[in-house]
Structures are given as C-alpha cells and as structure tokens.
Amino acid sequence: MFQIGDNIFYPMHGVGLIEAIEEKEFPDQKQQYYVIKMSISNMQVMIPANKILSSNIRPVTDLLALKQIIHIFQHGESEELLTWKQRYKINSDKLKTGEIQEGAEVVRDLMRMKKEKALNASEKVMLDNAYGFLISELEVIKGITETQIKSFC
C-alpha cells in the first residue's frame, strides 16, 4: 500500500515518513512492519502492515484538498451551544479519524472560541495538537508555500 519514502498522516501523531519496510520473525510467524519517522515528535514507530488500514493512516493530502480546507476556515459554521465536555468529545472524535477536513474544523472552531474567551487547559492542549498536526501536513504538500499556510491558519 505504501512505499519507502512516502509521506503519510497518522491520526493523533501527525505527518511521518516511511523509512523502511521490515520483516520481523517471531517463533510462530513472520510479519512485515512499516517503520515510520514522525516529524512532530521525532519518534520512530513500527506498525504491522496488516494494521495499517485499521489505524486510519493515509497518504498526505494534495494541493487540491487545500481549497476545501481554506473553505472550511472561511465559511464553515461552528457549533456554539455545546458544553466544553461535549465539544471536547466531538473534537477528539474528529481528530481520531485522521481526516484533514475534520482536523481543520477542530482548529477553526477552537481558534474562533479562543478569540472570544479563554480556552480551558484541555482545549488549549487540543488546539495546540490539532494545529501542529494540520501544519505538519500542510508543510509537506507539494506546491504550497509557508506564506499560503500562514494566510489562513
């Protein structure tokens, strides 16, 4: 599914680079693993090849999806009538999907709230993480500049 050198997005971890595909031998079987270097944490993770799909790992998005993300930031509606616990649960679920659009919605909503009032500690951490995940992916999209990233985030 993925090749060495591919940039991927791993939900709740951000962008990573597939450095190797290794085979590990156990007493009863051999198993292939993707060796991924995560850009945000500088950590290396190994994920069994048969778990890649269930982990929601996906290729990094492309420049075409960027238009949709910009639209989300400029025109999307935020749900304002929820308690912070309800918002936290919804936003956590969105981030776990690993979809860039869902992550962009979380960043948009929390940034809007932050302008109106101070976020609680949990939502501050969530905003920092979601923003980092989004930026880590935008930075590796071919054809995008740092100025373009900063213009809508």
TrEMBL record:
Name of the molecule in the record: Transcription factor YdeB
GO terms, biological process: rRNA transcription
Organism this protein belongs to: Fictibacillus phosphorivorans
Domain CarD-like/TRCF RNAP-interacting per the UniProt entry, residue ranges: 1-111
Any one Pfam family match given in the protein's UniProt record, by short name: CarD_C
